Amino acid sequence: MNNAKCFKEFAKYTSLNVLGMIGLSCYILADTFFVSKGLGANGLTALNLAIPIYSFINGSGLMLGMGGATKYSILKSQDKTREANRAFTNTVLFTLGLALVFFAIGVFLSGTITRLLGADDIVYQMSKTYLQVILLFAPMFMLNNVLLCFVRNDGAPQLSMLAMIGGSLSNIILDYIFIFPCNMGIFGAVLATGLAPIISMLILSPYFLKKRNQFHLIRCSVSGKLISNIVSTGLPSLITEVSSGIVIIVFNKIILGLQGNIGVAAYGVIANLSLVVISIYTGVAQGIQPILSKNYGTGNKKDIKQILHYSLVTVLTISGIVYSSVFFGADFIASIFNSEQNALLQSIAVTGLKIYFIACVFAGFNIILSVYFTSTEHARPAHIISLLRGFIIIIPMAFLLSSISGMIGVWFTFPTTELIVAVIGLTLYLLSKKKLS
C-alpha cells in the first residue's frame, strides 16, 4: 500500500468512526443536558452517581466487541474463514452470558449499589431508577457494541457510523419527548438511553437480512482458550471505559466531602463532557484497529508504522482544538448545564474545566498506543498502559492531590496521571519498536 492509499484508508475509517463515537457518547450528554433543564442540580447529581454503571456495561461490550473483532480481522486476512466465524460465535455467546449477569444485578441489587455509590436520601430514588433501568438494558448495550465492532471490521465502517449516530439521535429526541411533554422525569431520560442501542441494531439489521455479512454464527464448541484470548485482546477497551466509571466514583466520594451535592453536580458537567472528548480519541483508535489488524495479519509492517503516525498527528490536532475551545468557552459550557444559575456550581465547573482538560493530549496518546499494541497482538504493554491510567496511578493520585490542594487537587489528578502514563507508554513503545523494524 503506498502512502496515499494508506492515508485514504486511514481517513475513511477514522473519520467515520469518530463521528459514530461522538454520536454514541451523546447518549449520556443528552441526558445531562435535559436532566439539568428538567430536574436541576439534584437530577445532575443522581445522574452522575449512576453513570459509572453505564461505563461498566459499555466497557464490557467494547471489550468483547474489540477483542472478538480484532481476532476475526486477523484470521480473516489469513483466509481462515471457519476460525474467524468461530471467534464471532464465541464472542456472541460470552457477551449474552455476561449481559445476563448485569440484568440480574439490576433486578436484585440496584438499591444496594445505589447506596454504595454514595446517594443520600435526596437523590436516592432518582439514582436507583437510572441505575436499574441501565442494568436491565445491558444485553442491548453489549450486543450492539459487539455488532458495531464486527460490522466495522467486516469492511462496512459507514454502516457502523450510521447505526451509532442513528441510535444517538433517537436518544436525544426521545430524551426531550419523555422528560418534557411526557413528564417522565429521570425514568424518561434513562428509557431513551436504553432504547438507543435497539434502534442502532435495527439500523444494522439490513446488513444481515440481505446477507452482506461475511461473519456468521456456526455450530462450534465454546473455547475457554479462545474467549480468554478475546478478553485479553479487548481488556484495554474495558479498562478505558471502566476506569472512567471508577474515576467518577472516587471523585464523587472525594467531592461530596469537599463541596457536597453541588460539587458533584459541577463535576457531572466536566465528567460527561470528558466522556465525549475521550470518545473522539476512542473513535480514532477503533478506526485504526481494523487496518492495523489486517496489516499485522499480512505482515505489512511499513503501513502499521504509517497508520500509527497518522493517528498520533490527528490526536495532537484534535487536542489543541478541544483544549482551546474548553479554556476560552468554560463559562458558556458550564452555564449550558446550570439551569438554576447556581453561582457555586458555575464557579467550581469553570475552574475544573480549565484544569481537567489539560489531560487531553496525553489521554489521546495513551488510548492510541493501547489500541496499537492490542491490534498487533502485543497485549501486555496495552494492559500496563490501561491499568496504570485506569486504576493504579489515578486513584492514589486523587486522594493525594485532593488532601494537599482540595478541589484544585481533584482537577489536577487527571492530567497528572495521563502525563505520567504517557511517559511510561512511550518507553514501552520504544522498547517494542525493534519488533516492527
Describe this structure in words.
The longest helix is centred in the N-terminal third of the chain and has 75 residues, at 3-77. The radius of gyration is 21 Å and the shape is globular. The chain is mainly α. It has helices at residues 3-77, 81-108, 110-116, 124-136, 138-153, 157-179, 185-209, 224-298, 301-336, 343-356, 360-375, 379-392, 394-405, 407-432. Helix content is 87%, strand content 0%. The chain has 14 helices and no strands. The two termini are 17 Å apart.
Can you describe this structure in just a few lines?
This protein is mainly α. The chain contains 14 helices and no strands.
Which short descriptors sum up this protein?
about 425 residues; globular; mainly alpha; 14 helices
Q: Note the gap between the termini.
A: 17 Å
Number of helices: 14
Residues in helices, as a percent range: over 70%
| Shape call | globular
What proportion of the residues form beta strands (DSSP E)?
Answer: under 5%
Q: Helix/strand/pairing class, anyone?
A: mainly alpha
